């Protein structure tokens, strides 16, 4: 497997097209939509994922972050309506080792106005297809127990509870899910059975 494809930024240069969506590198002009995402977040999310008392991060703060990350190519792509150009949010990969070392975690967040249309599932399916083509064998996803909408998306995508307990907090239980991206080769199955 080409380890360069595992590196942060490998997805960030891609343009992925689905039936209804274009997933593309983030642009400074997306900052307003990303700021709206922060204002729409559930009150139960941790403080570092919500606007603070001074309203930060501001649209300008987010625009500066996107401009700075543009040099490093974020692996979170903007989700855009292919017909209208409207930006709904983001979908992509993060490499923070929440699952297994070197294996990506999928992340997505869309504006409430874009919910219940299948956009998150469609965008995530495209990102997972890219992950397969890049040689990844598994993908992970963490989700708050109370986030019913994201649970539904992950279930449609084939993610299951990894049974790796994550400590509960005042924000609730954060569940780590996993999905195989490639079928396990028969020889690997036999070896696992033989080692028991």
Write the layout of secondary structure elements.
Layout: E1 16-17, E2 21-24, H1 31-40, H2 59-70, E3 76-81, E4 87-94, E5 105-110, H3 119-133, E6 138-144, H4 148-157, E7 160-161, E8 174-180, H5 186-194
Antiparallel strand pairs: 1-2, 2-3, 3-4, 4-5, 6-8, 7-8
Helix pairs in contact: 1-2, 3-4
Key structural traits:
8 strands, 196 residues, globular, alpha+beta, 3-stranded antiparallel β-sheet, 5-stranded antiparallel β-sheet, disordered N terminus
Describe this entry's structure for a reader.
By secondary structure, this protein is of the alpha+beta class. It contains five helices and eight strands. α1 packs across α2 and α3 packs across α4.
In short:
With 196 residues, this protein is of the alpha+beta class.
Task: Count every helix, treating DSSP H or I runs of 4 or more residues as helices.
Answer: 5
Order of helices and strands: EEHHEEEHEHEEH
Q: In what order do the strands lie side by side in the largest sheet?
A: 1-2-3-4-5
Share of residues in helices:
25-40%
**Stretches where pLDDT falls below 50 for ≥5 residues?**
1-5, 186-196
**Cα-based radius of gyration, to the nearest Å:** 17 Å
Strand content: 15-25%
CA-to-CA gap between the ends?
Answer: 28 Å
Name the average pLDDT: 85
Instruction: Indicate the structural class.
Output: alpha+beta
Largest sheet: 5 strands, antiparallel
Number of strands: 8
Overall geometric form: globular
């Amino acid at each position: 497997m080409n380890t360069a494809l595992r590196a942060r930024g490998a997805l960030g240069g891609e343009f992925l097209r689905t039936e209804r969506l274009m997933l593309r590198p983030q642009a400074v002009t997306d900052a307003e939509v990303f700021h709206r995402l922060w204002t729409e977040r559930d009150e139960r999310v941790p403080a570092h994922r919500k606007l603070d008392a001074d309203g930060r991060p501001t649209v300008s703060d987010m625009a500066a972050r996107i401009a700075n990350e543009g040099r490093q190519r974020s692996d979170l792509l903007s989700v855009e309506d292919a017909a209208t150009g409207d930006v709904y949010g983001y979908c992509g990969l993060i490499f923070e080792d929440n699952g297994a070392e070197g294996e990506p975690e999928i992340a997505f967040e869309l504006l409430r106005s874009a919910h219940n249309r299948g956009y998150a599932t469609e965008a995530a399916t495209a990102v997972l297809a890219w992950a397969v083509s890049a040689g990844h064998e598994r993908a992970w996803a963490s989700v708050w127990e109370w986030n019913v909408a994201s649970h539904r998306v992950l279930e449609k995508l084939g993610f299951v509870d990894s049974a790796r307990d994550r400590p509960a907090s005042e924000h609730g239980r954060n569940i780590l899910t996993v999905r195989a991206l490639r079928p396990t080769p028969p020889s690997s199955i036999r070896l696992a059975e033989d080692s028991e």
